[in-house]
Amino acid sequence: MPYCYVLLRGQGHVALVDVGYSHRDHGKHLAEKYNIENWRPPHVVLAECGVVPEDVDTVFITHAHFDHFGNIDDFPNATFYVQREEIERWTWVLSLPDRMRWMTASLDPASIIRAAELSALGRIKFIDGDVENVIPGVDLHLARDSHTYGSMWVSVCNDRAAAPKDIWVLAGDLVSQFDNLEMDGSLIDVPTMYNPGAQTVGSYTNIIVAMEEMMKLVDHDAKRIVPVHEERLAERFPSRLSKEDLRISEICLADGAKSFVI
Ligand SMILES: [Zn+2]
Fold first, then answer.
1. Centroid of ligand 1 to alpha carbon of 147 (angstroms)
2. Domain assignment present for 256
3. Which of 40, 143, 187, 239 shows the greatest Cβ crowding within 10 Å of its Cβ?
């Protein structure tokens, strides 16, 4: 299973959706528990797309799990956006007795501490709900009490039309693999159905409601919802392997932009 994050470039911005996991301290321990291999730091990963971490001005954090909110320290010039409930409630969970902390199986407590540090530095913006055009063409959507307490998904509008058609959804772990949107539905006698997946601390129902919101936004074209733990991204989008065995998939290109995979 791949562990990815997403680079957005355009309209004068270099932005990321999530920052991947940090291969040190508890992040390293979790990676070993989950059998993740071949970690590379963001400066190596982003070099494949001609970007250095210092170029990144904006980071959207879909949720605080270790594999999405790990490499926080690598982007000195970025402002981070995260849902307020996400950090507040994880902080509360960390205060609970060990016997109640089943929820923390995919959490690196250091990420929550670093979020507090970023907050003190004025570098993190806590969001309450949905935000349109947080940077041009990018909307943020709250899926409260779902995969996590304040999971967020990101939509990117790639055309400037009054009724845009070229929309992509970066789903965090609300949709982590293609099969989450297209599970065999024979159990209830439908062709396919949504499957809310695993590693969830909140409501399965809220995940399925969020999936429907995403699907409505992309006119029910599931190919426009990008899951970051999907091995078959390489079949759906132009992709290549770097010499370090990292995979880069290109979801779409800005007008006139040069491909990084061909
Ligand atoms: Zn997650």
1. 7
2. no
3. 143
pLDDT for position 78:
98
In a domain, 1, yes or no: no
Does residue 177 belong to any structural domain of this protein? yes
How many whole angstroms from 236 Cα to the centroid of ligand 1?
22
Domain of 243 in residue numbering reads as 6-249
Strands 58-60 and 79-83, bridge-based pairing: parallel
Count of domains observed in the chain: 1
Q: How far is the CA of 86 from the centre of ligand 1 (A)?
A: 12
Q: Are 27 and 70 in contact (CB under 8 A)?
A: yes
Can you give the CATH number for the domain in which 88 is found? 3.60.15.10
Structure token digits, residue 14? 């270099």
Q: What are phi and psi of 72, to 5 degrees?
A: -65, -35
- 135 CA distance to ligand 1 centroid (A)? 24
Instruction: Tell me the mean pLDDT per 10 residues along the chain, length 262.
Output: 94 96 90 91 95 98 97 97 98 96 94 96 97 96 98 92 88 95 93 88 96 97 96 95 94 89 88
Please give the pLDDT value at position 257.
Answer: 86
Backbone angles phi, psi at 104, to 5 degrees: -90, 15
CA of 199 to the centre of ligand 1 (A): 7
Gyration radius of the chain over CA positions:
18
Q: 17 CA distance to ligand 1 centroid (A)? A: 13
The long-range contacts involving 140-145, CB below 8 angstroms and separated by at least 24 positions, are 140/60, 140/81, 141/210, 141/213, 142/83, 142/85, 143/174, 143/206, 143/207, 143/209, 143/210, 144/83, 144/85, 144/202, 144/206, 145/202, 145/203, 145/206
CA of 27 to the centre of ligand 1 (A): 14
Residue 52 lies in a domain: yes
